[in-house]
Amino acid sequence: MQALFVVFPGHTPLVMLTSPATLGAAFILSQPWHSALAPAMQRDVLAHLTLLKGEKGACLLPMGASVNGWYAVLSGLVKLQSTSPEGRVSAFLGVPAGEWFGEGSVLKAESRRYDVIALRDTTLLCLPRADFESLQTSSQAFNQYLVADLNRRLGQAMALIEAGRLRSPEERVALYLSRVFWPGTRKLNLSQEELGHLVGLSRQTVNRVLRQMERLGLVSLAFGRVEILDEPALLNFNPI
Asked: Distance (Å, rounded) from C-alpha 92 to C-alpha 81?
C-alpha cells in the first residue's frame, strides 16, 4: 500500500530508533505537566506506565470493557468507532502517534463506549487510572492540560456532527486533513485507505477528492506525498 503523507510546510519529521519502553518514558518526560510534578510523583508516573501492542486491524480496547487508564498512541494510528445495535459501524475519530485519547472515559465510572481499532501496527501507552486520579487531585499543571485537551475534543466532536449532517464528501475529506484533527502533527504517514476509514468513504472517493484539491491548488501530490498549499481554502473546499 502506498503511503499518503500530509505535510504542513516549515516542519521536519523526527525519526527515532529505540525501544517502546524508552520511547514511552521519553513521551511522558516531554509532557508539559510532567516537570511541574513533585519528584516522587514523577518517579511513580514513570514506574507505573504500561504498553499495549497490536497489529493492523486489531481491536486494542473493546467497547464494553472496563477503563483501566488514560491512553496515548506511542506509535501507529488508531480509530475510535462505535457499533449500533443493527451492526452499523461509525468511526468518529482518528488518533495519531503523540496524542492522548479516552480522557472522557477515564473520568467516568463506566465501561468503554467505543472500540479502539489499530489502522496500522500500533503501540499504546497507558497511564493507570489511579495515577490519573492522583494527578487530578494534586497537579494544577495536569488539570490545565486536561481542560485544554477536553476543549479540543469538544471542538472535534462539534465538527464531526456538522460534517455528518451537512457536509459533502469533499468537505469531509478536507476537514479530516485540517488542523482541526491534527493540531500537533505537521506530517502524517496516512494511506488513502486509512483516510477513507476515518472519513467513512471509499479509497476511490478519497483519491478523486485529492485530485480535485490538487487541480484547485489546495494541495500538491507527488511521490506519495500531499503538501498542504492553502489551508484556509482547504477548510472552505466545496466544489459544485
From this structure: 6
**Are residues 210 and 192 in contact, defined by beta-carbon separation less than 8 angstroms?**
yes
- Output the 3-class SS for the chain: CCCCEEECCCCCCCCCCCCHHHHHHHHHHCCCCHHHCCHHHHHHHHHHCEEEEECCCCEEECCCCCCCEEEEEEECEEEEEEECCCCCEEEEEEEECCCEECHHHHHCCCCCCCEEEECCCEEEEEEEHHHHHHHHHHCHHHHHHHHHHHHHHHHHHHHHHHHHHHCCHHHHHHHHCCCCCCCCCCEEECCHHHHHHHHCCCHHHHHHHHHHHHHCCCEEEECCEEEECCHHHHHCCCCC
- Are β-strands 5-7 and 69-75 bridged in parallel, bridged antiparallel, or unpaired? unpaired
Q: Note the pLDDT tens digit of each residue in 116-139.
A: 999 889 999 999 999 999 999 999
Q: pLDDT per residue over 69-128, tens digit each?
A: 999 999 988 989 887 777 776 767 888 888 999 998 899 878 888 899 998 899 999 999
pTM: 0.76
What is the C-alpha separation between 63 and 60, in angstroms, rounded? 10
